[in-house]
Every structure is written in C-alpha cells, then in structure tokens.
Write a structure and sequence with these properties.
seven-stranded mixed β-sheet, 4 helices, single chain, about 35% strand, globular
C-alpha cells in the first residue's frame, strides 16, 4: 500500500466534548494516527481435508491487519476494532448480531484477536518495548526467537506470532462472501474523546488455495530429522511448526515437494548452559504446516520492523491454507 493510499483511507474523525459542553476540540488534541501505517487485507482461510475439526475440509474468511508506527512497533496499546462486510455478509442472527448491523464484526474481535486487534499481529507494546502475547499461530526457533526462558518477556507470553490467525467461530459462521470490506479502529483519547481511522479491503476470489497434505518427518535419532512437505500451487511461503522440547518453526519458500532439516540441538539449555535435544527420545511430537500466498515470514516481528509489511499476495488477497497434523513418537 502506498503512502498516498494510507493517507487517504486512514482519514481521521476526532470527536467528543466535556460534560455539559458542546464545541470544537482543543487545539492541543493529539493525533494518535500521526506517523503510523494501518493496513487491512481479506482472503480465504482453507482447512485442508483432515485439518482441525473438518474431515472433508472447509473454507472461511481470513483477515489480516498491521498497525505500526515508523519504528515498526505496534502503533497503540489499545484500540476498538469493527469490520464491516458486504450487505450479504451476515454475522449472527437478529437481534444478536455481532456488531451494530448484520454485516459487522465487533464483539467477537476482542476475544478472537486481542484488545489491540492487528497490533498483536506484528509488533510490540510501544510503552514497555515488550512483545504482545500473540493470538493464533506462534513460531519458534530456528525461524523465530525462543521464549522458553521467560526472562524479559511478559508473564504468559507464548511466543512470537506468525501473523496467521484461526478464524473465530463468529467469523467462520459468517461464511465466505465476496465484495468490499472495511476495518475501522477507534482509539480513546482521555478523558472523553476518540479518534478513528478506516481502511478498505476487497475479496474478489472465493477459490481457496489447494489443500495441503500433512507433512512427514524422518528422525535422525539425535533429536532432529528431515521434514517432507508437498506445498500446493499458489503458496509463496510455508511455516512448518513442530512441537518437541520447544515449539520449533521451519520456513519454506515456493511450491512443490520440499524438504527441510530440523537441527538436533535446539532445545532449551540445561543447567550448565548447554543446548539440549530438539526432540527427546521416546517423546511424542507433532507437526503441521501453514501456507500463505504472501511473504508471511518476512512480515513477522521481530524479523520485520517495517511500518507497512506485506500482508497480501499478488492478487491483493491474504489467502492461507492449513494442513492436517502428523503425530509420532521419537525413537
């Protein structure tokens, strides 16, 4: 998205007044959107056959967003999001709609994406400098830093976000509808003012990425091994997530049959500071793959500190496919 486009669509609307008074805002009102970049993209989220609770597969709405300041950190610590879809995008049933109207997502966005919506997709808390606890798929070494040692991280921080999030029940219940969508975020300005900005996105192609089969793993007997993945056409990048003595992430580029190695000693250090095996002998491990039609890895924090990372593919959409998982016992 160009700077011109951001400036046009992130138009501000400041409003509010003190109790018992009506009039213009004071001239010292701070513009919380100054120096920030707000992006929004929609696409398809494909559960391959056998992935999640869908034995025959399923396709839902995918939403991606980034809201960063010029340093690449999260632009704000709190905002209130609303997504408005086409007129035939119905969320919930009357009178229990998710937003103010039948085609709005609002109430479900806080539990689905966290208080800061997309700020948690790629970024850190600009006040503390620490990363937000992500919602959704998280990564680990060697692709992303390990947080097994919690020192320096917020309590309960599970790991760095891969920028891919499962659709919430409300979102998936809404179905897949082509057309124009809009994200609006409202930022409270104490004591009783607010600022808002909106950015559009279009879903033109309802055909999802092809199904991805479960990745396979060949142990080397020393804690690591080789992963085999058949990446479907249209996928630009793939995360392979492996659970062992830590949560590990391997990254692949392009489509077709691919292999990638999990190093032997990526486990947390022992009492002497020496690294341990990635997967212990006799332990149960699992792995699955997530493919995207855009450079998802390059957009992840802390790898990327760009104000406006790429969150959509060449067709303007953010399409994702999830594989089934493979579970086995390490020899």
């Amino acid at each position: 998205m160009t700077k011109r486009t951001i400036a046009f669509f992130a138009a501000l609307a400041l409003g509010g007044c003190t109790s018992g008074q009506v009039g213009p805002l004071p001239i010292n009102t701070v513009n919380p959107f100054q120096g920030t970049s707000l992006q929004f993209a929609v696409g398809t989220f494909r559960y391959s056959a056998g992935a999640g609770p869908y034995p025959t597969g399923a396709t839902f709405l995918n939403m991606m967003e980034s809201f960063r300041n010029s340093a690449g950190h999260s632009a704000v610590t709190y905002d209130v999001p609303t997504v408005t879809g086409p007129s035939n995008f119905v969320v919930g049933t009357k009178p229990l709609y998710d937003g103010l109207g039948p085609n709005q997502l609002h109430n479900s966005l806080v539990p689905a994406f966290g208080d800061n919506f997309g700020s948690q997709f790629f970024g850190t808390n600009p006040v503390t400098g620490k990363p937000y606890a992500p919602i959704g798929y998280i990564g680990g070494p060697p692709a992303l830093p390990s947080v097994k040692d919690q020192s320096g991280y917020p309590a309960g921080f599970a790991g760095y976000s891969e920028g891919v999030f499962q659709p919430s029940n409300v979102v998936t219940g809404a179905g897949l509808v082509a057309g124009s969508y809009s994200l609006q975020i409202v930022i409270p300005i104490p004591p009783d003012q607010s600022a808002n900005a909106s950015v559009p996105a279009t879903l033109n192609n309802l055909t999802p990425l092809p199904d991805m089969t479960a990745p396979q793993f060949s142990p080397d007997g020393n804690g690591g091994g080789t992963v085999f993945v058949n990446v479907p056409k249209g996928v630009v990048e793939t995360f392979v997530n492996i659970s062992g003595n830590d949560n590990f992430t391997l990254v692949l580029h392009g489509a077709g049959q691919q292999t990638v190695a999990l190093p032997d000693s990526l486990g947390p250090p022992d009492s002497t500071g020496q690294p341990t095996r990635s997967i212990s002998s006799g332990s149960i491990f699992s792995l699955y793959a997530i493919g995207a039609n855009y450079p998802a890895y390059e957009a992840t924090y802390p790898l990327s500190t760009a104000a406006a990372p790429v969150i959509r593919g060449s067709d303007g959409q953010a399409d994702v496919v999830l594989s089934p998982s493979t579970t086995a016992v390490y020899p």
